Amino acid sequence: MLKNLEFWKALNPVKDFRSHKIGNSKKKVPSKASKLSGIKNYAGSVQSPKDDTSSTIAITTTSSLSSLAPTIELSENIHIVSTDESNAIYYLNTTITDLKTNYNETLPLLLDTGSANSWAYNESCSSDACKAVYRFDDSKSSIKTESTFELVYSGDKISGDLINTSDNNLNFSIDGLSLNNFTLGLTDESPSMFDDYKVSGIIGVSSSSSSKNYISQLYESNLIDQPIFGLSLVSSDQTIKYLNSNNKQSNLPSDYGGLVIFGSQASKLTKKFTEKDLVVYTDISDNDNSYWLINVTEITSHNDSASADIASDRQALIDTGTTGLALPKSDADSLHSKLFGSNLVTDNSGNYAFLCNDTNSNITFTINDHDFNLSLSDFKGNEYSGSGLDGYCASKIQGLDDNDYWILGAAFLSKFYTIFDLSKKKIGFADSRITTYAIKETPKVFSSETVSSSSSTRSKNGSHTSTQAKSSSSATSKSNSTSSSSKDSGARDIQAGLHNLIPFQCLIMVLAISIFN
Fold it and tell me: What's residue 337's pLDDT?
C-alpha cells in the first residue's frame, strides 16, 4: 500500500454509491501481495495530518486584462458557483422565502448533476451535519405536504416530506431567479457522510424533466427560454478580474468556484467561455436514473515512453457531485500502471500515488470522434510527507469494486466548458476554455414576489450572520472540521515506518437510491 500522502483534501463521499467506505485514520490494513506486477505495496497504521499541503486551486486575480479578454456580466441567468476551501464541493446559495411571514433562509445546496431531486434540512434536524449549517424553519407556518420521500446513501437512509412551493406560498430563488412552483424535500435526517460538508442539502440537476428537477421547472415556469445550463468550473490556470456594478475593481469572492449559466445563453456565450467557438455534443445514453451518461469510445494513456489503450466503449457518468474521477478498479489499475509503471504505489484497494515530479503523463478521452485531454496536473492530488513517501502525490482517480461506470467529476469538468441540454438529451464539451476573463456584477433584480432585503436571514443559532456557507476549519481534509477526527482521510503522519495509501477523499454524489411515495 502507499506511503504517506498529503492529498485527499478534495474527495470525500457525500452521496456515496460505493460498496466500501473510505478508510479512517489509524485503520490497519493487512499487507497483500501486489496485484500489479512491479508495483510497490505498503501496509501499516497512519495518523491524522498535521500540515496542509493540499492541491487546492490557486486563482490569479488582476487589475488589468488584455483588451481581448471577455467580460461576463452576472445576471438572473448567470450565477457564481461557490466552492469550499479544498474545491471538494460546488454549491449554489439558494433562498427559500415564506411570502406569508417574510421569513427567509439562505441555504447552500450542493449542485448535483447526479441527483434528480432536491432537498434541504428543516429546523428539526439535530444531527451533527444539520447543526453546522443553515436550515429552513418550517415551523414558522403551516406547511402542506404532497407526499413523502426516502433516499438511501450507502446504507444510510433519510426520509422526509415533499412540498410544493406554490401550495405553501413559498419562493425558491437564486439571486434574482425566483421559482414559485418547485417540488423539494424537507428532512430532519442526514446521512453520516454529510457530516463533514457545510451544505444544507442538494439541488438536483439531472437529465430528468420532472417537477423535482430544478432546470426543467425553470423552463416550465418560463424563467428560462430553453432547458439548458452551462458550467464553467474554476481552474488554476485562470486569471480573473472582478468588477462591481459600478465597473470598479473589487475582490473576487473567496469561495468563487466558477459560473453556471441557465437557458440559451449557455450556448450563446460559448465564444466568451472558450478560445475556440467549438462545442462537441454527444447523446445521453438511456438509463432509468436520469444520469448524464455518455459513451466514451476510447481512453488512452500517454507518458514519455509510450501511448497505450486503456479501455474502449465505456459509459461515463458526468457528475458535478464527484470531486475527482472514479473508475472500475480493473480499469483504474490498468490506467495507473501504464502511466507510471514501477513508480506507481497502490494499496490494491483502488488508491494510488505517483511521483510528484512526473509532468508528461496525460489521458485522452475520445467522445463522439473528438479527443479530450487531461494533463497530469488535472488529476494530481496533494503530496505526501513522512517516512517512505516523500515526493509522491495522490491520484485523484480512484478504482471502485462493483462499479460499471466511469465517473467523471469536477477534476474532469474543470478542464472544459460543459453544456447540459435536457430537451435534446445531449452534453456538449468545449475543450479550449478561456484562461483570462473579467466578471462584472450587475444590480440584482428581484421578482415582485421576492421578499425585500430587509427581511433578515438568521444563522443556525438564530443570530444574524452572513449566509455564505462555511467550509471545514481544517483545509487538509473535507471529511473533518478538526485535524484530530478519526474520519480525517487526508494525508497522514507516519506512526510506523510504513502506512496505508489513504484514498483521495472524493465527494461522490451519484447513485443514491430514491423512493417516493
Answer: 94
Half-sphere exposure of 136 (CA within 13 A, CB side): 28
- 176 pLDDT exceeds 60? yes
Tens of pLDDT, residue by residue over 114-129, are 888 899 999 999 888 8
Q: Which fold would CATH assign to domain 71-274?
A: Cathepsin D, subunit A; domain 1 (2.40.70)
What is the pLDDT, as a whole number, of residue 193?
Answer: 72
pLDDT of residue 442: 82
Please tell me which residue in 138, 188, 319, 331 is annotated as part of the active site. 319
Cα–chain center distance at 125: 24
Q: Which residues of 175-198 are buried (b: 16+ CB within 10 A; e: fewer)?
A: bbbbbbebbbbbbbbbbbbbbbbb
Nearest Cα residue to 494 out of 417, 418, 395, 388:
388
Provide the 8-state DSSP code for 222.
T
- Write out pLDDT tens, residues 191-241: 777 777 889 999 999 998 887 899 999 999 999 999 999 999 998 778 999
Distance CA 500, CA 175 (A): 45
Domain parsing of the chain, residue ranges? 71-274
Q: What single string gives the DSSP state of each residue in 288-356? A: TT---EEEEEEEEEE-SS-EEEEEEEEEEEE-TT-SSEEEEHHHHHHHHHHHHGGG-EE-SSS-EEEET
Residue that the C-alpha cell 497504521 belongs to? 45
- Which residues, other chains included, contact 27 with Cβ-Cβ below 8 Å and sequence gap of 6+? 45, 46, 500
319 given a catalytic annotation? yes
Catalytic residue among 16, 84, 98, 112: 112
What are 9-50's pLDDT values in tens digits? 323 333 333 222 322 222 222 223 334 544 555 443 322 223
CB 419 within 8 A of CB 279: yes
Cell numbers representing residue 162 in the block? 415533499
Q: Tell me the Ramachandran region of residue 99: left when phi exceeds 0, alpha when psi lies from -120 to 50, beta otherwise.
A: alpha
> Does the active-site annotation cover 371?
no
